Amino acid sequence: MTDNKNQLREDAIEFAIQISDLCDETKGCSVYINQIVRSSSSIGANIHEAKYAQSKADFINKLEISLKECSETEYWLELIFRKGKMTEQTYKNLRSQCGSIRRRLIASITTAKENV
């Protein structure tokens, strides 16, 4: 059984893979596609880096970067959807997953700041 931190990391990896798969199938909008691949994969990368933070402040900083990347990913999702490059169902599913990761990041950051 995985703990909450590892589950968040696993969910971020799965989310990045789903975004990557969608982008592999998407024609056109290469600038937007490149941006969403970068931002979505950065979410999990920074969660992973937080595990090896040098201090509590560094840990919080890495999670805050993940949160920013999550917000950026939500923007690119909406833009790509509005361009007609994904179905509404796919958009809603990915937006929901991203929102779930974002809310859990906020909770983790809040907890970490309370325990400083």
Strand element count? 0
Helix content: over 70%
How would you spell out the order of helices and strands?
HHHH
According to CATH, the fold-level topology is de novo design (two linked rop proteins)
CATH top level label = Mainly Alpha
Word description of this protein:
The structure is a single chain. With 116 residues, the protein is mainly α. It has one domain: de novo design (two linked rop proteins) (Up-down Bundle). It has helices at 4-25, 30-50, 56-82, 88-114. Helix 1 runs antiparallel to helix 2 (30-50), helix 1 (4-25) packs antiparallel against helix 4 (88-114) and helix 2 (30-50) packs antiparallel against helix 3. It is elongated and about 45 Å long. The two termini are 28 Å apart. The model has no long low-confidence stretch (mean pLDDT 93).
In short:
With 116 residues, the protein is mainly alpha-helical. Helices cover 84% and strands 0% of the residues.
